[in-house]
Amino acid sequence: MRAWLFDNTTTDQREPHDSGVPQTADDLAAIGVLYWHLSDENALDRLEEIAKERNYKNRDQIVVSKEAMGDIYETKVKSFFEEHLHEDEEIRFILDGTGFFDVRDKQDRWIRIQIYKGDLLVLPAGIYHRFTTDASNYIKATRLFKEEPKWTPINRPTADENSFRVDYLRTLRVR
């Protein structure tokens, strides 16, 4: 995982957009984003431990690529890149490929997180975020869920008064 402040240029969303201002795992933790790198021979065992500790009961796999998604690929990637939140944690374990999650920091700036094979990322419920593949146009991930999968994005600004958003902002004041 690498992270940096997003440079806000309007070129292709799949480019790095690296502002040169790095962000650390501690910076991410300060906004409730959790990160682990699970790359050794015990990665799946460690994933199971974390899933049990955090009560993730369900999972599936997703492949985001032109080959796997066909004609809907571009439309799907554009929808993933709309600024939104979920009312559940968003948990992704990267099995192959690379991509970017952008999350809002306390000053409402984008932090771009580049994720790689072996990265486990947990976004808290209520955080504004977006996702895109990188220039490789390929990522394969396990998605974990506490209950039945819900993929309902609530786009900004509609979600500004959402109770999960309000609760998330309240937790930021405590950190």
UniProtKB/TrEMBL annotation:
Cofactor mode of binding and number, as noted: Binds either 1 Fe or Ni cation per monomer. Iron-binding promotes an acireductone dioxygenase reaction producing 2-keto-4-methylthiobutyrate, while nickel-binding promotes an acireductone dioxygenase reaction producing 3-(methylsulfanyl)propanoate.
Reactions the enzyme catalyzes: 1,2-dihydroxy-5-(methylsulfanyl)pent-1-en-3-one + O2 = 4-methylsulfanyl-2-oxobutanoate + formate + 2 H(+); 1,2-dihydroxy-5-(methylsulfanyl)pent-1-en-3-one + O2 = 3-(methylsulfanyl)propanoate + CO + formate + 2 H(+)
CC annotations in GO: cytoplasm; nucleus
Annotated compartments: Cytoplasm; Nucleus
GO biological process: L-methionine salvage from methylthioadenosine
Alphabetical list of InterPro entries matching this protein: ARD, ARD_euk, RmlC-like_jellyroll, RmlC_Cupin_sf
Amino acids binding Ni(2+): H84, H86, E90, H129
Binding site for Fe(2+): H84, H86, E90, H129
Main location: cytoplasm
Molecular function (Gene Ontology), one example: iron ion binding
EC number of the protein: 1.13.11.54, 1.13.11.53
Residue numbers spanned by region Disordered: 1-22
Cofactor: Fe(2+); Ni(2+)
Pathway: Amino-acid biosynthesis; L-methionine biosynthesis via salvage pathway; L-methionine from S-methyl-5-thio-alpha-D-ribose 1-phosphate: step 5/6
PANTHER family: ACIREDUCTONE DIOXYGENASE
Function: Catalyzes 2 different reactions between oxygen and the acireductone 1,2-dihydroxy-3-keto-5-methylthiopentene (DHK-MTPene) depending upon the metal bound in the active site. Fe-containing acireductone dioxygenase (Fe-ARD) produces formate and 2-keto-4-methylthiobutyrate (KMTB), the alpha-ketoacid precursor of methionine in the methionine recycle pathway. Ni-containing acireductone dioxygenase (Ni-ARD) produces methylthiopropionate, carbon monoxide and formate, and does not lie on the methionine recycle pathway.
Family assignment from sequence similarity: Belongs to the acireductone dioxygenase (ARD) family.
Protein name, per record: Acireductone dioxygenase
